[in-house]
Amino acid sequence: MDLTYRPRRLRRSPAIRAMVRETSLSAADFIYPLFVHEGAEVEPIGAMPGASRWTLETLRGEVQRAWDLGVRCVVLFPKVADELKTEDGKECFNEDGLIPRAIRLLKKDLPEMTVMTDVALDPYSCDGHDGIVSATGVVLNDETIEQLCKQALVQAEAGADLIGPSDMMDGRVGAIRDALDEQGFEHVGIISYTAKYSSAYYGPFREALDSAPRDLGVKPIPKDKSTYQMDPANSREAITEAQLDEQEGADILMVKPGLAYLDIIYRLRHESELPIAAYNVSGEYAMVKAAAQRGWIDERAVVLETLLSFKRAGADLILTYHACDAANWLAQD
Ligand code: PBG
């Protein structure tokens, strides 16, 4: 054949392929989510094989392991005892609560590791919502933000580097920015869950924290989070959320979930100059793990391909439960 263009010329050898490779993956791109609980034992999480609820004692070792593999940021999620859950979620700003203690411990022993937090009421709410639920079953915006600001301050005081509001209340980024600045935490960053969709992919996470919405029969409880998390059908709305977060002072914008929302990552990459993070959520992790356990897919290849796809779509950072495995595999390549 008389072909002028033969794209295969640049695929001929590993060396040539490496020369023209457009994106790459590195351990420094990863943010490793970790669950902590008060218990004395490390508890495996059924729907998330390989992930556990760590104790405060064992958390340190897992974070050290991540550091040694090149991971430079962790995000902490608490499994809160039922007795501490209330309608207003006030345990979220207890300075002796699980998360502030975990942050202090990590900052003492591994000060260089970046510690990110999650700001929302759901782990602390007896109703399992990210905000306060009114007597008529409405998730209250402004009242919730007051709690979130207190939560963010307690986390910053404990030493958090990046505050991650995941609640999707309107105006929370600006309110948290103001609260942090007023108390002298202008150096603490905000990684906003900018485009967080009302997704079924969070199922295993809610099992890990026992944090799904629940109706205790006291008042009507919305059965899902669709009055505050975004409709999976919407794309332009993500741009609106990104513009608001930028105006309110977010440092990093996040898209969540990741894999079913690569188009949103791509759009935000082109609409904003801020770093973009993708959250490779619990349901995405569980699907890969389940298929790999059955021998139906090659876990290593699928995980690295998936994580690379977030970078290709335009993400700079990836929150992923695969962080340590992936960092390990990358180091062997
Ligand atoms: C809570 C929160 C959720 C996740 C992170 N922060 C769950 C939810 O919104 O219901 C999900 C993470 C995952 O599924 O891996 N605000």
Question: Would you kindly provide a brief summary of this structure?
Answer:
With 333 residues, the protein is an alpha/beta fold. It is built from 11 helices and 12 strands.
Q: Could you list some keywords that capture this structure?
A:
333 residues; alpha/beta; TIM Barrel; two-stranded antiparallel ribbon; 12 strands; 38% helix; 17% strand; binds ligand PBG
Structure description:
This protein is of the alpha/beta class. The chain has one domain: Alpha-Beta Barrel (TIM Barrel). The protein has eleven helices and twelve strands. The chain has helices spanning 14-19, 56-68, 98-109, 141-158, 172-182, 203-209, 236-248, 262-271, 282-293, 299-313, 323-332; strands spanning 30-37, 43-44, 52-54, 73-79, 114-119, 132-133, 139-140, 162-165, 189-196, 252-256, 276-280, 317-320. The strands form two sheets. It has an eight-stranded parallel β-barrel with strand order 1-4-5-8-9-10-11-12, surrounded by nine helices. A two-stranded antiparallel ribbon has the order 6-7. Helix 3 packs parallel to helix 4 (141-158) and helix 4 (141-158) packs across helix 5. The chain is globular. The mean pLDDT is 97. Residues 118, 120, 122, 130, 166-167, 202, 205-206, 225, 281-282 line the site of ligand PBG.
